[in-house]
Design brief:
Radius of gyration: 26 Å
Structural class: alpha+beta
CATH class of one domain: Alpha Beta
Strand content: 5-15%
Number of helices: 22
Largest sheet: 5 strands, antiparallel
CATH superfamily of one domain: Regulator of K+ conductance, C-terminal domain
Helix content: 55-70%
């Protein structure tokens, strides 16, 4: 029976593709401790088994997958990547160079020491850093044409590349999370204190920005409270914690109801209406006084809308300068940049392409959207014309190549499509009607492209994974551990002792330079703050580009 099923599946490559995708995503939902395996690891596992059993998948899936993935990476990073050169990107660029450079040099050295066969080095670099763009660029460079070692075919090198990636990826993912969780103890750093220090220095949230509070992601509600705590008299609301999670929308004082300024000073007996999440209301009850029912203060329709910032005039303005509460009667709940939620601090500078989530009355929200840009759900359709031609332009950019010593040197498909994505992403942030690619559409295209590519890589690796592990498995595992850990240590040392960065921010930047969102979640939990996310976003855009370049170069050496 088992033999019959395998024989049948060997004739059904398209069916195999979707079975591997489904099983892989299902396996990715398994938790190891507090960490999900993730779809990439799940598909890698399922694909390795399928490859070992000799089950084929369409070869076009790999090519189509990496093109979709790398283009969406460029589009997502575009606004942040180009703007970072003119803003605060210098130190993050240095950290990414240090991470990529130290990993690159270490991989070359280990390849010489262990005499790895051609293809192992780029697979080792990509797997140890869990960097799919590195793998994509290396595979594309191989397809474009490299000088092959004697006795090896292009298929042999590709099998080595895939197998090395599969073997080292597991520790690259789990090992980084484990190691970065121990780093504060190794360097004797109190990351919650570091995060709090940075928060106080920049007027960000206080000690109540805990891991539990960060998990509260519910629709904000309106409640009313009577001020009875004398400690709040004549103190600006900004002085209190949860500054941007709880916003005073109206105040009743001596029978008069009015809309307060950005930082109202409260008095005993005031009745205030507050918009916030559950954690914010719990804190308001503690610092203000009892909850009361006030029909006039509560009788208003509160909506939540996402607004895309596109107006050039607001580029670089801080949240406090915008003063949304006083000027627009709307409360800023959170801000998303490059697909990640950022802590909404008063000194946070706005960037075009940011998605700001506000709560308030519908008329006020629509007026604010007109002032800042447009409502995110206004244009949900993808501009498929620009999307298709953007990829086509990228492929054309990647065609020109110089032949030096029998090796073609050029951007290749991956490099060309990445550059095109960066340019089109930047143009969309400036001209919002151009190249529309809503976040949900970008996410599914990017995720599907990545997983399609991983199916091809895993199935190909599965055909030789046993032989590879028997021949060089121990050396690859040890090398992968070194390439995961050493760049982290080097990057931390440079950031901490040469650049003088705050440890919480630095750890976030390190996870960004390693393109590991799972490790970022661990850092946020350890710091009891979302502040490390700022460092992650700063480094992530650079890392995707530079690690792709590193993968292309090391494949050609």
């Amino acid at each position: 029976m088992e033999h019959t099923i395998i024989t049948f599946l060997k004739t059904q490559p398209v069916l195999n593709l979707f079975i591997i995708l489904g099983l892989g995503v299902l396996v990715g939902k398994i938790k190891i401790g507090d960490t999900l395996m993730g779809s990439v690891a799940g598909v890698l596992f399922a694909g390795l088994i399928a490859g070992h059993l000799g089950l084929p998948v369409p070869k076009a899936a790999l090519s189509m997958g990496f093109i979709l993935f790398i283009y969406c990476v460029g589009v997502q990073a575009g606004p942040r990547f180009w703007g970072a050169f003119k803003q605060d990107g210098g130190r993050y660029l240095i950290l990414v160079f240090v991470t990529a450079g130290s990993a690159f040099i270490l991989v070359l050295a280990l390849s010489r020491v262990f005499e790895f066969s051609q293809g192992f080095a780029p697979g080792l670099l990509a797997g140890a850093l869990t960097s799919t763009p590195t793998l994509v660029a290396a595979q594309d460079a191989l397809t474009q044409g490299v000088l092959l070692s004697e006795g090896l075919t292009q298929q042999d090198v590709f099998a080595n590349l895939s197998a090395a990636y599969a073997i080292t990826y597991v520790f690259g993912m789990a090992g980084l999370i484990l190691f970065i969780s121990f780093m504060p103890k190794i360097f004797r750093i109190d990351t919650p204190a570091e995060a709090q220090q940075l928060a106080m220095a920049e007027w960000i949230r206080g000690s109540r920005d805990t891991a539990d509070a960060m998990k509260v992601k519910v629709t904000p509600t309106v409640r009313a409270y009577r001020v009875e705590n004398e400690a709040t008299i004549n103190r600006e609301w900004q002085d209190e914690e949860y500054l941007l999670d709880a916003t005073i929308t109206r105040i009743r004082r001596a029978g008069e109801v009015f809309t307060p300024a950005y930082a109202p000073k409260l008095q005993i007996g005031d009745v205030v209406s507050i918009v916030g999440n559950q954690a914010a209301h719990k804190h308001s009850l503690e610092i203000l006084g009892p909850e009361v029912f006030d029909q006039e203060l509560l009788d208003r329709s509160v909506e939540t809308m996402s607004i895309v910032l596109s107006r050039k005039g607001y580029e670089g303005k801080t949240v406090s300068e915008m003063n949304f509460t006083a000027n627009d009667h709307c409360s800023l709940l959170h801000l998303t940049r490059s697909g990640l939620d950022l802590p909404c601090r008063p000194n946070l500078k706005l960037r075009r392409g940011d998605i700001l989530v506000f709560t308030g009355s519908a008329p006020h929200l629509k007026a604010l959207a007109k002032r800042l840009g447009f409502l995110e759900n206004r244009w949900q359709e993808t501009d498929l014309v620009t999307f298709a031609f953007g990829i086509a332009v990228g492929l054309l950019i990647g065609i020109p190549a110089l032949t030096i010593g029998g090796t073609k040197i050029g951007l290749g498909s991956a490099g060309g499509v990445l550059v095109s994505g960066l340019i089109f992403g930047m143009l969309h942030s400036r001209y919002v009607l151009f190249g529309r690619l809503p976040a949900a559409a970008r996410h599914i295209l990017m995720e599907l492209g990545l997983l399609l590519f991983m199916v091809g890589v895993a199935v190909n690796a599965g055909t030789t994974i046993v032989e590879t592990f028997q021949g060089a498995g121990i050396e690859l595992v040890l090398s992968g551990a070194a390439v995961t850990i050493v760049p982290v240590l080097v990057c931390f040392s440079v950031g901490r002792y040469l650049l003088g960065m705050n440890a919480a921010l630095l750890l976030g930047a390190i996870t960004g330079s390693m393109t590991s969102t799972a490790a970022l979640q661990q850092v946020n939990a350890s710091a009891q703050s979302t502040l490390p996310t700022l460092g992650y976003v700063g480094a992530y855009a650079f890392a995707n580009v530079l690690l792709a370049v590193a993968g292309s170069i090391i494949m050609r050496l």
